[in-house]
Design goal:
The complex is a heterodimer of chains A (193) and B (97).
Chain A: H1 14-32, H2 37-58, H3 69-87, E1 90-91, H4 95-118, H5 125-142, H6 146-164, H7 170-189
Helix pairs in contact in A: 2-3, 2-7, 4-5, 5-6, 5-7, 6-7
Chain B: H1 12-23, E1 26-28, H2 29-36, H3 40-52, E2 56-63, E3 66-73, H4 75-91
Antiparallel strand pairs in B: 1-3, 2-3
The chains are: A mainly alpha (193), B alpha+beta (97).
Chain lengths: 193, 97
């Protein structure tokens, strides 16, 4: 027996029972919360791409399509996701719904990008940011996490500002907001809020 | 007014297992064992008692040719757990003033 507290069948006191329930729920919660490394990597990458894009536009440089870096970043993301899935020995309550939301977001992002590109409708990044805002809003509501809901409002507010006033600096706004939302997510999953 | 405590849940390891199972959708035997630090034998006996009471479902399957035991709390288990916590609270001094 590794833990002597489970020796025998003696009944715990009421306080011990409550403490045990709290301890076990906290331990289980700690197991299914992510460290948020992937979110931070994505947030940083998107910020970098946004900045590079901004430099391209304002200083007339040409780095090629910097947004292709996001596709390269998918490789380690997929690798670590598969690795994590293999070693995981439980399913959290909101896991399935969360996965479906991100799948829906990814599919919508690709379909919208294809549509805009096929019919030459201009830059699609603003619409993608809006889709991201919707996903963030749903996840924030599901997890009763106010900063994520606020983040969504920030995204949509920035969208309006982008259209009205900041058309030329859209890339940096986009990157910064991605970073903010990822940072919120990271803090939430690490239990810092 | 003190409420009776459910004797099935009023045992440390069974209560620990139920607290874990109420926190997740489902969990493998190894996950519960890791979290509770109990021995496999003891945990197995206590989980079977919970299963006999109808508080959890236990499914045996295979994963990469290895046996896998998956546990999931039932609606009856959730109700019993909630009632148990309510009963415990009634014993706390601040609720009896």
């Amino acid at each position: 027996m590794k833990d002597p507290k489970y020796n025998g069948e003696e009944a715990p006191t009421h306080q011990q029972s409550l403490d045990l329930i709290n301890e076990m729920i906290s331990k289980a919660k700690k197991s299914y919360t992510s460290k948020g490394i992937a979110s931070m990597v994505w947030g940083s990458l998107i910020t970098f791409c946004g900045l590079a894009n901004w430099v391209e536009i304002h200083f007339k440089k040409d780095f090629g399509d910097v947004w292709l870096l996001t596709l390269i970043a998918l490789i380690p993301q997929i690798y670590f996701s598969i690795k994590e899935k293999r070693s995981k020995n439980f399913i959290a309550h909101n896991e399935i719904a969360t996965n479906y939301i991100w799948i829906a977001f990814t599919l919508s992002m690709f379909i919208t990008s294809y549509y805009f590109s096929h019919f030459n409708l201009g830059n699609v990044s603003t619409l993608i940011m809006m889709l991201f805002g919707i996903s963030t809003f749903i996840l924030g509501g599901m997890n009763k996490f106010k900063p994520m809901i606020v983040g969504r409002h920030l995204l949509l507010g920035s969208e309006c500002m982008f259209y009205l006033y900041l058309f030329r600096s859209r890339c940096i706004t986009y990157g910064r907001l991605w970073f903010i939302c990822m940072a919120y997510t990271r803090h939430y999953f690490m239990g810092s809020f | 007014m003190f409420k009776d405590l459910d004797p099935i849940l009023h045992s440390q390891l069974r209560l620990a297992a139920m607290s874990i199972l109420i926190s997740v959708k489902e969990a493998e035997f190894t996950f519960i064992k890791e979290q509770t630090n109990a021995t496999a034998g003891n945990l197995s006996v206590q989980l079977n008692k919970l299963k006999d009471a109808g508080y959890i479902d236990i499914t045996k399957q295979f994963k990469n040719n290895y046996p896998l035991t998956v546990c999931k709390i039932t609606d009856r288990g959730i109700f019993a757990f909630e009632e148990y916590v309510k009963a415990l609270r009634s014993y706390m001094p601040e609720n009896n003033k």
